[in-house]
Design brief:
single chain; alpha/beta; seven-stranded parallel β-sheet; 18% strand; binds 6-phosphogluconic acid
Length: 246
């Protein structure tokens, strides 16, 4: 498969090095924008080490907290305080102690269902950027963080799910998750995710080896379709890479 020039794979030794590299890339995006910054966080367990790093110096001290807004790329349809809630995880690790509450933008789950949550979050994103259409000249996010699931899903974009084909909506409800936890989801769509200056995947651990091999072979899976219009980076550790040459 031909590799586009705006896609890079960076190999690091282990999860600690991966979190450090992710934090440095996040800082680079923050430093490049003297105005209001928008970062779209990921759920799952992969970004936890990065979030812990951001909660401590030197990173906590370097982040201009008043200027940074934190969004979430997908949410499990559970209460805001539920331990399964993706934003609750990020809030408890670093946001609640460091970010102004007005800068934290969770996907609401106190609604009639995931479709209503999706509509409300889409409106919130549109109000934030002051536009109802995505504009390639003004990306929604400075940085989007992503993880990869065992079936090649990313965010809550699952293989063969209609949400993957969405072209106009920014956020949609997903009735059924294909992996645990089996609760309905709310997810940004591929066009919304692509509207960023950088999309950064964190892929670590031997349990990711099988899916990484399939992705590297170019299989048509959600994680291979999620790309930034500007720059996409896969941060991969050696355990995930297995025997593959780096
Ligand atoms: C979620 C996530 C999901 C996650 C991948 C990887 O809500 O579960 O947003 O897309 O990023 O499943 O999960 P791990 O990081 O736990 O391996």
């Amino acid at each position: 498969m031909a590799t586009p020039s705006n896609f890079h794979r960076i190999v690091v030794d282990d999860p600690a090095a991966l979190a450090n590299a992710a934090a440095e890339r996040l800082m680079r995006r923050i430093d490049a924008n003297p105005g209001r910054i928008a970062i779209c966080l990921a759920g799952g367990s992969s970004p936890k080490q990065l979030y812990r790093l951001l909660s401590t110096d030197p990173f906590a001290d370097r982040i201009p907290w008043e200027r940074v807004h934190w969004f979430i790329g997908d949410e499990r349809f559970v209460a805001a305080g539920d331990p399964l809630n993706n934003m609750a995880m990020a809030r408890s690790i670093f946001l609640d102690s460091l970010a102004p509450s007005a800068n934290i933008h969770p996907i609401p789950t106190d609604t009639a269902g995931p479709d209503e949550s999706a509509l409300r979050y889409e409106r919130e994103l549109q109000a934030f950027c002051g536009a109802s259409r995505l504009d390639p000249a003004r990306p929604l996010f400075d940085l989007v963080l992503m993880g990869v699931g065992p079936d090649g899903h990313t965010a809550s974009l699952f293989p063969d799910d209609p949400a993957l084909e969405e072209k106009t909506r920014w956020v949609v409800g997903v009735g059924q998750a294909h992996v645990q936890p089996f609760v309905p989801r709310v997810t940004l769509t591929l066009p919304a995710f692509s509207s960023c200056r950088e999309m950064l995947f964190e892929i670590a651990g031997a349990e990711k080896r099988a899916i990484l091999t399939r992705l590297a072979a170019g299989e048509n899976l959600p994680a291979n379709r999620a790309r930034s219009a500007a720059e996409t980076v896969w941060l991969v550790d050696r355990a995930a890479l297995g025997g593959e040459p780096s």
